[in-house]
Amino acid sequence: xxxxxVEIAVAAVKLVGPYLPKLLDAAKGxxxxxxxxxxxxxxxxxxxxxxxxxxxxxxxxxxxVKAAGTMVAAKPTDAxxxxxxxxxxxxxxxxxxxxxxxxxxxxxxxxxxxEMTVGAEGVIDRVRQTMEGAGQQMMKAGEKGRLSNAVQEMxx
Length: 156
Known about the structure:
Elements: H1 2-16, H2 20-27, H3 33-37, H4 43-61, H5 63-74, H6 79-95, H7 97-106, E1 112-118, E2 123-132, E3 135-141, E4 146-155
Parallel strand pairs: 1-3, 2-4
Helix pairs in contact: 1-6, 1-7, 2-5, 4-5, 4-7, 5-6
């Protein structure tokens, strides 16, 4: 059961992590989340906003989540920092199974997800995602990031 919470937390952090600098800024009251994410575009951003709406209270009320989130916001593509935040979030989800279930639903339910995310000025080049059956594929680039020669294929 604990592994499920870890998987949910990792998926949430992978989705929200690249946007944390802007989301944490918005959480301070500087701007509305929709406004902050408007310049990034894409369908994935709608999911980012919904997942963020579910977990943002943890980033303001829980000092450990706030600290881990601040670390990720400083370096959104740092895998070690993402793992740290996912570990802390998994602990909170274990204490709040309803929140874990809500995040699973927001991420598309219990189906497969393939996602590639590149952060600030990163590049995804010459990559193919192939998936059989139900699931969701996403490729996204953060601020000044670039996707090039990237292909997604769904086999039914």
